[in-house]
Amino acid sequence: ANLLEAVEEGGVWRLYGTKFFCSATHADYCIITAKPKGSEKVALFVLPSWLPGDKEKEIRNGFTIDRIKWKMGTSELTTGELTFNGAVAYPVGPLDKGVANVVGIVLTYSRLTVGLSAAASMTRAVREARKYADLREAFGLKIGQFPMVAGQLAAIDHTAKRTTAGAFKLYRDFLALEGGLKGGLTNDEPEAARKKRFDIRELIMLQKLAASWDCTDVIRMAMSIFGGHGVMEDFSSLPRLYRDAAINELWEGPRNVLLTQMHRDLQRVADWYKPADFIENNLAGLDEARRRDLAKEMTELLSHSDLFHLDEKTIEICRRWDAFCHNFFHAYQDLALQEVEKV
Ligand SMILES: Cc1cc2nc3c(=O)[nH]c(=O)nc-3n(C[C@H](O)[C@H](O)[C@H](O)COP(=O)(O)OP(=O)(O)OC[C@H]3O[C@@H](n4cnc5c(N)ncnc54)[C@H](O)[C@@H]3O)c2cc1C
Question: What architecture (CATH level 2) is domain 99-342?
Fold first, then answer.
């Protein structure tokens, strides 16, 4: 965003500068951040790709696509490098709240879809691996009859199911969120609503982190079950799913950024939302001893001032925080799966 400047010219905002990562360049509209001239704050704009009547003539709205990136996955959704030379854009929300709105609304929504996408890709990978295990014979046996393969299939099946159950549970709660997503950490609501909104924001980050990470593991295991065919592009969809999954882990906030953000968020709300209450509200139904252990670990990790000092203690806290976040979200997913299996 700091390389893109927004200038108000005769009542119209125009963008000047470059963007190094722009996905879905085929879209008719995009949401874009830029710094209004003379301001240090980042603002949010909606940018039409074409001005009225120009689409048919293939004349873009004051920008050029300089290069389409050659990326590892999500190839059907082009990511380009763009130069803006007076593109007309329209502000969305207050000009000084661009970061809060892009993170709290745009990125959060997009991160939510990463969780759903991970669930879908895992489910497909497991289904294909199961089918293959039923038909491929080696050493006189269907490969699904080898205990090694059967155990691996059961493990990825469980991960796919709990990821799917967790994704739908979170999506249900997201849909029920009164007033939808908001930018930043809000303080203008009654405590219960504020906590719910905070839960959704953090759970979406936790899901993005855990589900996208587990997804590459599940697909890699599915490829392994296929043997040599697992890496053949013209035999199954697994190589493509694997490449897409690696991208899901990186865009919309890579894991370290999310881990750091969540640590800070939870510290910032500590005066009205204690770690034990966060655990209680989101892991109701988990056995009490485990909840107590998680709350103890969380309290201790959050008491460490920040994750920025390069010393032995902080590195150890980072390692534990990373493991804690995965454990926490796996517990959330397992509870969601139990809920589905009870029906
Ligand atoms: C395919 C693809 C499409 C994309 N499309 C878009 C798009 O349309 N629009 C858009 O705006 N962006 C887009 N991006 C950019 C994407 O959001 C960034 O690449 C991503 O957020 C990481 O930023 P970065 O590349 O600058 O990595 P860096 O910030 O340089 O990160 C490098 C490493 O340092 C770690 N790190 C960085 N900061 C911290 C911190 N504070 N604490 C701890 N660790 C840290 C990261 O976790 C990572 O491991 C796209 C990226 C990809 C891969």
Answer: Up-down Bundle (1.20)
Return the ligand 1 atom nearest residue 256 CA. 47
Q: What are phi and psi of 184, to 5 degrees?
A: 70, -175
Token pair for 126: 């497991």
Ligand 1, atom nearest to 71 Cα: 1
pLDDT given for residue 2 in this prediction: 56
Kindly report, as residue ranges, where domains of CATH 2.40.110.20 are found in the chain: 4-92
Please give the distance of CA 282 from its chain centroid, rounded to a whole number: 19
71 lines ligand 1 (CB under 6 A): yes
Per-residue pLDDT tens digits for 67-110: 999 999 999 999 999 999 999 999 999 999 999 999 999 999 99
CATH 1.20.140.10 domain position(s) in the chain: 99-342
Q: Do 153 and 129 meet the contact criterion of CB atoms below 8 Å apart?
A: yes
Does residue 13's CB lie within 6 angstroms of at least one atom of ligand 1?
no
* Nearest CA, atom 30, ligand 1: 254
Percent of the chain beyond pLDDT 90?
A: 95
**CATH code of the domain occupying 4-92:** 2.40.110.20
The residues facing 89 across adjacent strands are 13
Q: Is the beta carbon of 247 within 6 A of some atom in ligand 1? A: yes
* CB-ligand 1 contact for 260 (6 Å cutoff): yes
